[in-house]
Write a structure and sequence with these properties.
- With 286 residues, the protein is mostly helical.
- The chain contains eleven helices and no strands.
- The longest helix is centred in the C-terminal third of the chain and has 38 residues.
Length: 286
């Protein structure tokens, strides 16, 4: 940037009375954003004040909830309803469910992502796939699981299909946007040399975007693990989510809930460490 451009930018900047440049200038967008946030805050406060809490004193219930949380976090343990091997087995069941849905979803999303990319497919097919995927993403994962629980019955099948629907829709968006960022000159050069559509994909698209695809896929795996825990009881898929439901809603044992929560947190931390190391080794270096 030249000195004249810098001087021109300074002349166009808004100054405070002290002569300093205003970093935050109030404009229409900022005003609308501030008004919206203020409206949401006002509605939230009004709802908390006017909510019917029944015969339970609010502050007394809040104190009891805080005490239960402290007990759950500081005194985790088993109370005889589960054994430690059973809890570990449930943890691996939830991990297996997340891994299965992520793998199958990534394969399906790869094909649909290619067809949804505007630089690799026709405009009609691209728009149609993107619209369908947007509709699927708009429905929460838990609702898809409930829909398929009614359609095919409670069990791991409903959980897998429900998680798969949202995984495919999520990854199609991520993959297609990554494919559309590929330099158009690379694609045109391959086509001019007589390369087929699949050759363009595997010689021009995949080598450039494989690291980004792996990153998005691993993120989705982490999300699927959380969802697998959440739907473990809803769809009858078992796993540590079902044990968490039993401990919290059937046995009412806060100590077992704390142990299961700590195990889930440990898995989340391990997954994050693995993702960070893979990202540094294969994405940052390459």
């Amino acid at each position: 940037m030249t000195a004249d451009q810098i001087a021109g930018g300074l002349r166009g900047a808004r100054l405070a009375r002290s002569g300093k440049i205003k970093a935050h200038v109030l404009n229409r967008s900022n005003a609308v954003l501030g008004l919206t946030l203020g409206l949401f805050a006002s509605v939230s406060v009004f709802a908390l004040v006017t909510m019917n809490y029944g015969k339970v004193p609010f502050f007394q219930a809040l104190g009891a909830a805080a005490g239960d949380f402290v007990t759950m976090m500081l005194q985790p343990g088993l109370a005889g309803h589960f054994t430690l091997p059973e809890v570990i087995e449930g943890l691996f069941v939830s991990l297996a469910l997340a891994l299965l849905t992520t793998f199958i979803g990534a394969v399906i999303a790869f094909v649909l992502g290619l067809l949804a990319a505007s630089n690799l497919s026709s405009k009609g097919a691209s728009n149609a796939i993107k619209v369908v995927m947007s509709v699927i993403r708009a429905v929460p994962t838990i609702l898809w699981v409930l829909v398929f629980s009614v359609a095919i019955g409670l069990g791991p099948e409903a959980a897998v299909v429900g998680l798969l629907f949202h995984s495919v829709a999520y990854l199609v968006k991520a993959y297609s946007e990554a494919f559309e960022e590929v330099d158009a000159g690379v694609i045109e050069a391959l086509r001019a040399s007589g390369a087929s559509w699949w050759q363009v994909v595997f010689q021009g698209i995949v080598p450039e975007k494989v690291n980004e695809m792996l990153s998005w896929t691993f993120i989705r795996f982490e999300i699927n693990f959380v969802n697998a825990v959440a739907v473990g009881a809803v769809a009858g898929a078992g796993g540590i989510g079902y044990q968490l439901f039993l401990a919290g809603s059937f046995y009412y044992n806060i100590h077992e809930v704390g142990l299961i929560v700590y195990l889930c947190l440990a898995v989340a931390v391990v997954l994050e460490v693995i993702a960070t190391r893979l990202r540094k080794r294969y994405i940052v270096q390459h």
